[in-house]
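# step 3/5: fold
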Amino acid sequence: MIRPVWAEIDLAAIKSNLAAIRAGLSPRSQLMAVVKANAYGHGLIPVAEAALKAGAQRLGVALVEEAIELREAGIEAPIHALSEPPLLAADEIAAYNLIPALYSLDLAEALSLKARTAQVTLRVHLKVDTGMHRVGVQPDQALELYNAVRRLPGLKIEGVFTHFACADDPDDPYTDRQLKTFLELKKALPEVAVWHAANSAAAIFRPETHLDMVRIGIAMYGLQPAIKPSPIALKPALALKTQVGFVQELKPGEGVSYGLIYKTKRRVKVATLPIGYGDGYSRLLSNKGEVLIAGQRVKIIGNICMDQSLVELGDVRAAAGDEVVLIGEQGEDRISAEEMAALVGTINYEVVCQINNRVARVYQN
């Protein structure tokens, strides 16, 4: 690490969060750790390994490429592709023993051919659209698809799953409607072994949704999964940090950064930080965001650049090389991903996911 911009990832926090969630599940409910999108920006391989050590039985990804990376790192646990992969991924699904979501007969037929050629049995999970209307087979067509897939040699329908559209609002009755639709289908397919619907929010706030497995994503990383605070104490696993790169003193009325949208109101010291939107630190935080230096909050001023940002130090004493916290704790204060998300009108998921690979990951515990 040459450039002093890094994200500290506390693997003990990830394990602690999973253990706390596991404690609230029934013994029959398996736990899937969702590690898609580079484990929500936390690092695919280290987080997957930590999650499995913490008791997760399965892993969930979005892309076959992510699953291959896990397999090539030596991870042997069941890996689910949570959206149906394209037809051209059939070879890799068979070769790496993946469990794809399935909602079209075309992929099922391609997988059956690969399974017969390789003389293996591939597990699949049917994805049912109970009301999110993103992907999945419609409930009134699910039985027809199930019967068609069941007749194909080399495939085993191990599970059926759905996804809740409004679980982040624990009081929204739409989750009840989706669950009712899903459970009605469950009655028609008693031979299916694994039924799953709950994401982090549902797993924490709606125990009736636990069924045979829960899929834990955002809560595993210690971030709030719902508009209500979690009753389970979650520990944020990620801290985003940099160092002061340069300090200068400006006279009153001086403009800073592109467009000179901020002008100093008095003689003041300004620090340049070597982090910008090219690292995933949103440009929408321009003139809004705050960072911690010497345990005190200082404001981002001017437009955030691709590689640099500026802060007005005020009464804070700082010099080149001093630690700066953009997400996380310093002294007695904390800047959370939720706080940052509120400033730019997004969600905590996006804040951490957009921290890109230009930012070094430093793993602790």
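# step 4/5: annotate
The first helix runs from residue 11 to 23.
# step 5/5: archive (pending)
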